[in-house]
Amino acid sequence: MNKDSPKIAVIGAGIVGLTTAKLIQEELKKASVTLIAEKFHQETTSCVAAGIFRPGTSFRGATPEITKKWVNDSWHYWQEILKSSDAVDAGVMGFDSYIFSKDNYSVTRNHLIEDLVPTYRSVDEDELKLVGGNWKYGSYFSTLKTGCEKHLPWLEQIFKSRGGVIVNDKVDSFTSLSKYDLVLNCTGFGAKYLCNDYNLVPMRGQVVKVRAPWLKFAFYGDYDTYIIPGLDGVATLGGVRQYDSYNLAVCKHDTAAILERCYEMLPGLKKAEIVEQRVGLRPHRMPVRVEPEMVGGLKVVHCYGHGGYGVMCAPGTAMNAVELAVNLLKGNSRAHY
Ligand SMILES: Cc1cc2nc3c(=O)[nH]c(=O)nc-3n(C[C@H](O)[C@H](O)[C@H](O)COP(=O)(O)OP(=O)(O)OC[C@H]3O[C@@H](n4cnc5c(N)ncnc54)[C@H](O)[C@@H]3O)c2cc1C
């Protein structure tokens, strides 16, 4: 290995792979970085996501401290983009959100972001009546979203402008990458096969995209109901969370259930044109895997298994993966053999 200009491969062109590729270029300016992926842009799970910044309270890394750092680092990363002239091109937009429940006040709270976002408060009686549904409990918080339909091409263009090389290929084993000094594995659900990782489980999701440019807030309700404003006036309505389901086809019963719940909350949505319906398999893993490993003599850093929170937490986990990669290249890491 040339110590000054290591050869690095990043596998995966979803939001985790492209963010990691951009950050490793920034950290190791002389490295030659190749990004290898089977699928790009609209074909990735990242492009199915609404991309809102709201972690589930069970989202977790190896320790509570690591989880919190991922969330905090991610928020500050997105804020930097949001404040910059790049925000529109990068597909990042800020807005506020309501979360309501009929059963339980605690589900409207979120210990991972309450001390982070500028506003997180309980709603008053009037706000409970803002939308249909006879809600008993609610909270209001500031958030943002990243639309991968714009964000992935934006990242890819930056990566290429810095000399990054993109290869469209499927990696069947790490052995085929032995010419690289280090590999960053950002394969999302693909890691199930590449790493024989039985802890990775598909959590099927389905969403309906509708044209609703008037929507300025996000709304959450019980049973995975959500209405999220989006880029170019296209909002995302959801959803479902089906554990261990591999079904990538749109299910008409899921569509009917999503629309019924969302229309009850916001009857105005009945007039919104349906633009498309998407299905994706969230790469669910407890904990998300960000760790180094020696695979047959090859230095590998894994960064996958973000479940339903991979868009919002891509930056924080990518920063962690890049730090591990730099240490591994220097020979300072405690990688598992
Ligand atoms: C309906 C739905 C709604 C969601 N909403 C949100 C949300 O609001 N907020 C949020 O933060 N997250 C959300 N998510 C979750 C989010 O989409 C995922 O966590 C995230 O996209 C994971 O990103 P990734 O880059 O790891 O995976 P992917 O986007 O799946 O990318 C994986 C990449 O790896 C490549 N790859 C895999 N295996 C191989 C291989 N062997 N060789 C070569 N290439 C390979 C693929 O081709 C692809 O390029 C949602 C998901 C769904 C399904």
TrEMBL record:
Domain FAD dependent oxidoreductase: 7-323
InterPro entries: DAO, FAD-dep_OxRdtase
Co-factor(s): FAD
Pfam family, one: DAO
The organism's place on the tree of life at top rank: Eukaryota
Entry keywords, A to Z: FAD, Flavoprotein, Oxidoreductase
Assigned protein family: Belongs to the DAMOX/DASOX family.
Name of the molecule in the record: FAD dependent oxidoreductase domain-containing protein
